[in-house]
Automatic annotation (TrEMBL), chain A:
The chain crosses the membrane at residues 26-53, 65-87, 107-129, 248-267. It is found in: Cell membrane. The keyword Transferase does not apply. Transmembrane (T) component of an energy-coupling factor (ECF) ABC-transporter complex. Unlike classic ABC transporters this ECF transporter provides the energy necessary to transport a number of different substrates. HAMAP family: EcfT. The gene is ecfT. One of its GO terms (cellular component) is plasma membrane. Pfam families: CbiQ. This is Energy-coupling factor transporter transmembrane protein EcfT. The keyword Cell inner membrane does not apply. One of its GO terms (molecular function) is transmembrane transporter activity. Belongs to the energy-coupling factor EcfT family. It is a multi-pass membrane protein.
From TrEMBL, chain B:
It is a peripheral membrane protein. This is Energy-coupling factor transport system ATP-binding protein. InterPro entries: AAA+_ATPase, ABC_transporter-like_ATP-bd, ABC_transporter-like_CS, ABC_transpr_CbiO/EcfA_su, ECF_ABC_transporter_ATP-bd, EcfA_1, P-loop_NTPase. Its main location: membrane.
Amino acid sequence: MLSKVLIGRYIPGDSVIHALDPRSKILLTVLFMVIVFLANSWATYITLILFVLIVTKVAGLSIRFLFDGLKLILVLFIFTFLMHVFLTKGGTVLVDGGFFTIESEGIITGIFITLRLTLLVVVTTILTLTTSPIELTHGLERMFQPLKRIGFPVSEVAMMMSISLRFIPTLMDETEKIIKAQSARGSSFRMGGLKERFQALLSIFIPLFVSAFKRAEELAVAMDVRGYNVKGKRTSYRLLEWKSSDTIAIIIMILLAALLFGLRAIGL
Amino acid sequence: MIVLNDVTYKYDDSRRAALDNVSLRIERGDWISIVGANGSGKSTLVKLLMGILETYEGDVSINGIKVTEENTRALHKNFSIVLQNPDNQFVGATVEDDVAFSLENLEVPREEMLEIVDTVLQEVGMLEYKKHEPSRLSGGQKQRIAIASALATDPDVLILDEATSMLDPQGRRDVLKLVQAVHKKRKTTIIYVTHDLTEVFRSDAVIVMNQGQVRLKGSVDTIYSNPHILEENNLVLPFEIKISTALLNQSIMSYAKLVRKL
Ligand SMILES: Nc1ncnc2c1ncn2[C@@H]1O[C@H](COP(=O)(O)OP(=O)(O)OP(=O)(O)O)[C@@H](O)[C@H]1O
Ligand SMILES: [Mg+2]
């Protein structure tokens, strides 16, 4: 179940999109999010959808796969849609149920807002699917470098993020093991009254926390003996290289924004 | 050469000394094994050797220079360590990032790093896993990466604190073989902590610890032929070693000689 969530997952590949600098990918994602808010009509939304489909293809991702990933947040989409259907008024009345009405404006706004949400989720997913967590962290670290001057601990936060990401699978495995061990002892947080369930949860969380602290302590020693010094200068193994493809990608994004402005200007 | 002179150390919150008047001499290029039951002070000794214990009694000197608060970082720069739990010492998000971690801290230029990372990964036979994430490796593979990371800084001294104790038999064999290869090729001083007495056979000297004290120090043969001292210190000689020493006692060959023959 959890393994189906796509946002935040990374799938290695050698597409043009994979090879882009993480900084440009982060920037492109932010730009696209802004552009999404420019869309206000069928033509503009269709343009954006076509664009996302092309990007998905170029990234070597399957569209089916991306949609399967969306299924898990389907409830959120349906909720957003229904809210607008019932709350937005205008246009012709399609259904008159007495205490509520469904009007055409409502349906259209519902569709548009749901599309907007989908587009936002999909681009973020494409970002994480094509950029490894370490690259993302590294990209963010570089982008926020200027904040160092006002005393913000950019490198430390980046190190924390990368270590957290690195330990997520380890702790997931551990949680699974503890759950198995506890259910072998007859404890289950799916059954029993509130009190039993709470106790069962505690029996999972307490060992998990104890072990996490122990890990943290050992990791601190390991980092220490390997010469890590919070205040020290370090060189970087990973190289961020702004290539011409990054510039081109940014230009394409700006053209997309221009196209949307154009469509709006001619009233499409 | 590392020399410990009457070193005593107490953890802040404990009454008993974790190291009790320990004196040792470790020659350059030697393979020293440290054995002892749980809580006997092995890891504390390792911490001392790595220079991460403060305020101990007695003194430690490295290559003739006494370790002080000021010079400890510099003197221990050429010491590397591999710890017990493969998961808790993997700092990088991928194999190559992990191997590069110490190099980044030493401000090694990137071009050099790229070369070193490949060389050490090749040496431990893990080059093809360069881009892998730790969660996709077996325990033995993770320990080989930990050794690669330790070797990246080209250490004079490599310390392994129960590096094999969480591994399956195959993983243990691989790691032990690798350590032997490293010792032979690089002439690195090896300090090998274990409570598995079958793993000490390659060492030049074995140190038996109990309650923070060094209880016995000698060659592999000395250790193997003193089972009663081992038992006094809560260690048990493995059955296969008991048999082979019994057999060897009938002949003229020593255990070390036998191992060299095999
Ligand atoms: N961080 C600590 N704080 C307080 N006491 C400690 C700490 N670490 C170890 N000790 C104590 O010091 C003594 C020696 O512990 P040490 O970890 O050196 O033993 P060890 O031989 O490595 O054992 P093991 O085989 O379990 O790894 C033990 O009594 C232990 O309880
Ligand atoms: Mg220990």
